[in-house]
User: What shape does this take?
Amino acid sequence: MSVTRYTKMTYDCADDMVFGQAKHPVSYGFGLKIGAGRVIPEINYAPRPGTEKDPEKLRREYVDYISKDILNRAVTAGFPDVQLETEWVSQMNQEKLCVPVVAGQKAICEKYHEEYGVNCGTRQTIPDQREADNGLRPGMDSLHAYPEKMFQCAEFACENGADNLSIESVGGKELSDYAVTNGDIVAFLFGVGYLGSIDMTYIWQEFANIAKKNRCVAGGDTNCAGANTSMFMAGGFLDNDVQKTFSAVTRAIASARTLAAWESGAAGPDKDCGYEGIICKAIAGKPTAQEGKNCQCAHCDLQGNLIAQCCDLWSNESVEYHPEFGGSSVQCWFGSLGYECALMNTATQLKQEKTLRDLYMYTDRTRGPEGYVLAYDHAYEIGQAIAANGNDLYLRSRAAGLKAAEIIINGYKSKELGLTNKQLDVINDIYKKISALPEDTDKFVEYAAKEYQDVPNFNLKNYGL
Amino acid sequence: MTMASSDVKNGEKYMLSAKGADFSQVLKRYDIDLQQVATPEQMAKKMLPKDEVFKKVAEEVLYMRFKTVGPVVMEALKQRNPLDVINNGLVAGMEVVAKLYAEHVYYLPEIMMAAKTMEIGIALAEKQVPGGRETKGTVLMHAAEGDPHDIGKNIAAVMVRSSGYTVVDMGRDVPIVDFVAKAVELKPLFVSGTALMTTTMSVFPTEAKLLQEKGLNMPFMGCGGAVNREYANSYDLGIYSEKAPQTPVIADKIRAGYDWKKVREEWDNIIGGA
Assistant: This one.
């Protein structure tokens, strides 16, 4: 699959973006149309511990219990659409464990579509178990052969009924781990913005080929391993291990990386935990999956409403399968998603979608710097900065980071956004450090490769360099 | 509200107007309201060692001067014995860092850089300790087989090491047999396992059982995003640590003689201050 970088914005302005509508909608599964007018709930789940030990137990857990519960609840509550997301547990890199689950979910979706008319389908999110110390590319990992297994998983998924192929890829993680724990934004820019983008471009060309061959849709990715780790450690108001001004900038940089999947043949939607999806949608016009207030089963964050502003799929992130008073956990959280989507879709029907979008956005716009940079008007500006440098993976990541820092600093100066003293110190330092970086990619790579040579497991060969 | 340039379409501002809205009725910025206003210098003043030589060493750690800690430690070693330089200078400096962290003056990056600084200093001073330096004990850490997520473990390892323990970190995705063999070889004070996935944490009961079969009864600390206290307490040897800073606190109790049952019983009291 060829690579086409985005050098201009698909949307003319931020106001054209709204939830449930993307410039380039995607259809798959049994009647699912993503970004074509309705927001669709996407429910994700984890099997109970121990079920992974036996193929039949695992199939039963995913298909007969989890999938059936969800599809039943769709009919019970009158939800027209649902996307199931199966994030493969690590053991599913074996054919005997993954194939019955993928095929079983396809079959049960078909059954509910035929019997009840539920529009449904599955996103199969395969595991990226690659380890930087053993090698990220095929032929390098003689211990586990994880790179080979990753591509094999894509084949298993697409050959057996996946409607959407996705992954949470880990390219650049060795540097982002270092960057987040040491508060080093330049290391993040190098690891995620530059090296991570190279890795994603490499793997997604192959995924897009595998998907196309099997008439599956190549969905997208997320910088879960980097920007989400950063945001998770920044946490809420009682946490702050990482400063929220730092995590906000990592999110902007991550968007330049996540975009690479769509430039390499993927059609969308991307992964829900990629909060950077709003920036990617602004640039590419492809549908985005998001998660917020209805993913409290998985984690708390500070933009639970805001992040719904322009979503096309609305997700719960993940919940372990177990009983609750209102049914199984997947039924309860699917119900929560389904009603939120119903609200958004009602707003669309009543032509109030931009009003609801703005209400979502305003509730969290100033709750913290992360939400502030992801507010759709600011996300659009970051998108413009990326597109203006679209052909250069380093320069566009640098531009994204710098723009995010500018937005936060200007928000503080205008008294719209409050910051703690520490958050202010950190964002000023970030701005200074990114501004000081060379505007020549070769010079930057030469500098960064030397500066971070001692970071554990860092190896340029993982990126073909 | 200041509107950005992209907020304008056909010359009109498009966003719903927030004029007159009072967002204090919507959200409360506890982080701003409750922020610590004292500087590290102000807070550390009363905590640093009185002895000028040790104070200078401790300040290297406190201010994360990993490029200059070497010469400062070498100078101190001319005037004080190496164990005192370690305990009363480097470790004392790290203790101040830990207090600043607890008071939300310092954060994770400062902990990591201060620990790095301390370790550079300890490595130099240790060379002059006849027979080597004794630590508070050995702790064996690993992330579960099949689980590549190890950032939490890495942070905990730094904090445990900074508290004076020797940490043997086996990394991530560690095969069960390798982990058990290493525990048998080292007979550590306690072992820990981390997991971010419900289907990888399920190796912990297996590993704990294998340790018992080998005659080892040290506590097995279960940690990580997928693990909760109920799960960690569901198998023999199992104890729980919710956050990295709790781990050295629990370690000190184990060192003081608490077995896994007593750690469980006293858990709320133990972690109360962590």
User: Anything to note?
Assistant: Residues 185-213 of chain A form the longest helix (29 residues). The radius of gyration of chain A is 21 Å. Residues 146 and 459 of chain A are 17 Å apart (CA to CA). Chain A has 15 helices and twelve strands.
